[in-house]
Amino acid sequence: MPYLGSEDAVKELKKALCNPHIQADRLRYRNVIQRVIRMSKLDQWGQAEVLNFLLRYQPRSEEELFDILNLLDSYLKSSSTGVVMGATKLFLILAKKFPHVQIDVLVRIKGPLLAACSSDSRELSFAALCQVRQILHSLPGHFSNHYKKFFCSYSEPHYIKLQKVEVLCELVNDENVQQVLEELRGYCTDVSADFAQAAIFAIGSIAKTYTDQCVQILTELLGLRQEHITTVVVQTFRDLVWLCPQCTEAVCQALPGCEENIQDSEGKQALIWLLGVHGEKIPNAPYVLEDFVENVKSETFPAVKMELLTALMRLFLSRPAECQDMLGRLLYYCIEEEKDMAVRDRGLFYYRLLLVGIDEVKQILCSPKSDPSLRLLEDQAERPVNSWALDFNTLAPVYGKAHWAVISKCQKAERHDSELPTNASFAISGHLVPEENKKVQEPPESEALMLVPNLQLSAEYFEKTWLSLKVAHQQVFPWQGEVQPDTLQMALKVVNIQTIAMSRPGAQPWKAYLSAQDDTGCQFLTELLLEPENSEMQISVKQSEARTETLPGFISVLETVIGTIGDIKS
Amino acid sequence: MISQFFILSSKGDPLIYKDFRGDSGGRDVAELFYRKLTGLPGDESPVVMHHDDRHFIHIRHSGLYLVATTSENVSPFSLLELLSRLATLLGDYCGSLNEETISRNVALVYELLDEVLDYGYVQTTSTEILRNFIQTEAVVSKPFSLFDLSSVGLFGAETQQNKVAPSSAASRPVLSSRSDQTQKNEVFLDVVERLSVLIASNGSLLKVDVQGEIRLKSFLPSGSEMRIGLTEEFCVGKSELRGYGPGIRVDEVSFHSSVNLDEFESHRILRLQPPQGELTVMRYQLSDDLSSPLPFRLFPSVQWDRGSGRLQIYLKLRCDLPPKSQALNIRLHLPLPRGVVSLSQELSSPDQKAELGEGALHWDLPRVQGGSQLSGLFQMDVPGLQGPPNHGPSASAAPLGLGPASLSFELPRHTCSGLQVRFLRVSFSPSGNANPHKWVRHLSHSDAYVIRI
């Protein structure tokens, strides 16, 4: 327990929070509040710890709630960012039924949070920026007036600049859109190609709401004829045209000329797609595609070739005279000379489709050219504060949603394993991670347990021995769903456990009999039983010689195998 | 609540390693961290990394990496503050924080870590309480003496030891030896401001931001009470008005928890009983409304010839400080387009220097007096120079790659916000010596002063 300043405070806190009936005990509540919350004698670390503990407390009435909030009010102004954030989180959690209180708190900590974003400690500023992004999910207009604080500075490390650009995207509104776009446009010509591309993608996402200005800026950027800029602009155009069909005209006018500057796979695919789908509006579309067709033999990316096939087919439907000849040449090349099978298959498919008739071709290839409804799906509606309040002031926003999801999945799998009944040493099962390891792991060497491979026990011998022995060990295992006998049998074979008999999959109850023998000749006979409607598998082990020291080793091997199989399924 | 703590040098050599809970890995975790750090893809942040059920959080301080690992979902703010506080504490005890001092004081560092963290929980980081427990003495490179005047000029009585302290004065260990009582009556108070400015290519001011701190480094015995008086016309927030003039205004202020603010409202006086060591008394921010003019304005004019690739840049730097002030160690960093072949320069005064390095032009001016103007003409050949297409007669549009100019400088004895410390008085001292040496310093320096071309 950290040094919380007084023994009494610690005792009361411990008692209060361990007691499930604290709600019923008025006296205890008063003690908690009066002794513990008078934290001014504690230093900042103690305060942060106590604020963390208090998260578990549930006030019973509104009065109590506002009582606590009033007492803790001054911690929102503390000079330590950790304490301010801890107090904010407590407010957000306690006041979950009062959204206006939550919003009020978020307004009050705007100042400290912005100060942390401009702190001279890079790391603190990064953590604060991630927190700002989380808040913007619920209150997009919250920081709009302070957009200047999020302008990137030349000397900042890359990861901070990326976060700032994301924040700028999210706080755009009618008043600041002009300045924000100006600023982002400046970043697009930055020396660092990565950062420039990130800025262009950011302009792309703002373009979903402020289409005209953004398209204008992107068109200007095309005029610079820089490879890394052009490819990203074309990709952005492709995405934009799909979501905002009103800008198709402007995009089509901007496109001619940029094919000279694109060398990478993504950019080429985007350009070709645009030419195919909107080719009738672009005068020189067939000639650009002809260039690609001429060079298809030296084209290294199969994805580009596939896109080229589709685009040319589409363009052929709208401008047949110009495309017929090169379509023929392309199909010939793809079917006869192309080595990549996916491309060849597509070529064959289109050829056969053409043979069937032009109407069928139109039916298949004329897909909708845009889907504005997708924009509404993508637009994250303002999420209520309660959806992320628990993650506030933790490591989750710092990692970002995607990365955190991966981490928590790994952690959950490991914790699940460690909850299994521990009879033998469980250090081994900590390494089981289902997503990464689909095959069974080698059984670790348990002390002095070596199972003899290729054991051949006959069924009658097994039955006789089984009936004559007493159960040495019984255990249950959590289990879900059906058993796959083949997988289990193979897995057991790897660890040298022989399967004498196994029920069919789906049999109820499901049973299996296993046997193994260690190098001293001691035999382990095992029965696995899965009752219908049971989420547990029962394991009974009988030993031919009473040797308790080898039994745990065998049990642990068995559990490893069954645990792995179980996790793969669930 | 942390599992392990270690310090790595800038090359990744482990200097200190301490395991608090024994629940995750061994010493090899330090190499693992360094490998992961150097192998991280460019757009992922290194501040918090995850490996094998452990989170690694680190800060960089003076080139060293201070890393903590934890397996719980802790608050990043608290942990980062803890690491910063540990860095300050180690600096206090060893004099300054760098590779040499740490390697010389390994035993002291481990003792400190033992006392500060127990089983991964923070016990205390207050220098006062720790003083009672730490027995080891710090090892310094050479004993400090106030009579060491080698770096101080000798003209006039003003520059004698009374008025000027060598710059290394503040970097000796605070709590060096218990028995040494003679050097214990000094207080250093710094008002340090960081200035961030962004000026657009047409000269308009896009953003100005001042972050200020008042830092105290006290060698006095604890229990001394002191009073710091700030400028009386100092206003907080947009609506406050004090005095008769525009006053000195800041947007937000925050104080250390131990500062007594009873007299702040009325007379702008802060009272506190500081512990020994470093302490940030007050932090403040100011944006967008600077009362004094910006210290530097740059007037660039760029001419370039597309055909021959000849680029000529004429930079005029004007210093708008009051005539008595000066700026020191000014460096202008101007990224250049790729492929610059040669550079010829004409500078307006002999002590300036300009050179090409890492794709950028560095123009160094050691000292600029307020109100003066300096210029430099740079000509270079850039074959293959590219730029925006010519829309009309805009021959002075900047070529691509001619990046924003960033200035770095120091302004001694000057604060951009105008805030000054009027007095620093020690009103009570337990050792009875109520007349210690007080050093008050105002300093501004640039954080990110960017001027777009």
TrEMBL record, chain A:
Gene3D superfamilies reported in the protein's UniProt record: Leucine-rich Repeat Variant, TATA-Binding Protein
Primary localisation category: Golgi
One GO BP: intracellular protein transport
Domain of life of the source: Eukaryota
GO annotation, cellular component aspect: clathrin adaptor complex; trans-Golgi network
Domain Beta-adaptin appendage C-terminal subdomain: from-to ranges: 451-563
Record's subcellular location: Golgi apparatus, trans-Golgi network membrane
Function: Component of the adaptor protein complex 4 (AP-4). Adaptor protein complexes are vesicle coat components involved both in vesicle formation and cargo selection. They control the vesicular transport of proteins in different trafficking pathways. AP-4 forms a non clathrin-associated coat on vesicles departing the trans-Golgi network (TGN) and may be involved in the targeting of proteins from the trans-Golgi network (TGN) to the endosomal-lysosomal system.
Annotated family: Belongs to the adaptor complexes large subunit family.
Name of protein: AP complex subunit beta
Organism (species): Nannospalax galili
Lineage: Eukaryota, Metazoa, Chordata, Craniata, Vertebrata
Gene name in the database record: Ap4b1
TrEMBL record, chain B:
GO molecular function: protein domain specific binding
Domain MHD, chain residue ranges per copy: 184-452
Alphabetized Pfam families for the sequence: Adap_comp_sub, Clat_adaptor_s
PROSITE patterns in alphabetical order: CLAT_ADAPTOR_M_2, MHD
Database matches in Gene3D superfamilies: 3.30.450.60, Mu homology domain, subdomain B
Quaternary structure and interacting proteins, as annotated: Adaptor protein complex 4 (AP-4) is a heterotetramer composed of two large adaptins (epsilon-type subunit AP4E1 and beta-type subunit AP4B1), a medium adaptin (mu-type subunit AP4M1) and a small adaptin (sigma-type AP4S1). Interacts with tyrosine-based sorting signals on the cytoplasmic tail of cargo proteins such as APP, ATG9A, LAMP2 and NAGPA. Interacts with the C-terminal domain of GRID2. Interacts with GRIA1 and GRIA2; the interaction is indirect via CACNG3.
UniProt-recorded name of the protein: AP-4 complex subunit mu-1
Organism: Nannospalax galili
Gene: Ap4m1
